[in-house]
Amino acid sequence: MSALKLAVFDVDGTLVDSRQVITEAMSRAFKRAGLGAIGYDRTRTIVGLELTEAVLRLAPVDYPAERIPELATFYKQAFVEMRSEAGFSEPLYEGARETVERLTDEGWLLGVATGKARRGLDIVFEHHGLHRFFTTLQTVDHGPGKPHPRMVLDAMAETGVEPHATVMIGDTSFDMAMGRAAGVTALGVSWGFHTIDEIAEGGAHAIHHDFAALDQALERFQPGLAGDAA
To answer: How far is CA 97 from CA 130, 133, 139, 209, 224, in A?
Structure first.
């Protein structure tokens, strides 16, 4: 049996603090579509979903279905604009880089499962110098997004790691549901977009409140039954 272990990370709200920029980009998109500003309390509920699905959930129920792709395009355009503006920032959460480096040093394989498109992921990872740590990068470009298990299943297939040796780490109920559906240990983190109750409802085996606590859970993890890292 392989001794490899795989940690699959969500990005927005887990590794990267993108709460402010995602909220602003969504608000700009909705205003451009003539729908008015949209705030954090609504935007946070859809973070992690594929973009078209996300804006569909946020749009008014009577919004024309044929205009949903346009609304998604407005969001992408807003993000491009914001990246060129002074003061734009998508910082790593405190402790994120240290955890990624430590896991790599300890022989873990690392992956990403994100609602971002690959282009957006590459921009963030290039800015923070993270590409070299990650073996598998799963995005919404080539199949269904969260909470479908496809991205975690593809990450395991690419790395050759079995479900009993894989951990999914994320801040939303969508991450937890995806991990559960893929048969892996689902670890929630409470510093991102979803509330503790929402993460728990998604099926988290455990929820951690800072990277120090997450580190301890990963140190305890031994490949076995899902939930061993709780």
So the answer is: 8, 10, 21, 16, 27
C-alpha span between 111 and 26 (Å, rounded): 27
| Beta bridge pairs of residue 8 | 111, 168
Instruction: Give the closest residue to 192 by CA, choosing from 170, 159, 212, 164.
Output: 170
Is 227 a member of any domain?
no
Answer with the one of 59, 83, 107 that is the final residue of a domain: 83
Mean pLDDT of the chain: 94
Model's pTM, two decimal places?
0.93
Q: Is residue 74 part of a domain?
A: yes
Question: Domain for residue 184, yes or no?
Answer: yes
> What's 192's domain CATH number?
3.40.50.1000
User: What is the Cα–Cα distance from 64 to 79, expressed in whole angstroms?
Assistant: 23
pLDDT digits (tens, 9 = 90+) for 110-134: 999 999 999 999 999 999 999 999 9
Task: For residue 99, give its domain range.
Answer: 6-17+92-220
Q: What is the pLDDT of residues 158-183, one digit of tens each?
A: 999 999 999 999 999 999 999 999 99
CA distance readout (Å), 176 to 36, 187, 189: 32, 7, 10
Q: In angstroms, what is the C-alpha Rg of the chain?
A: 17
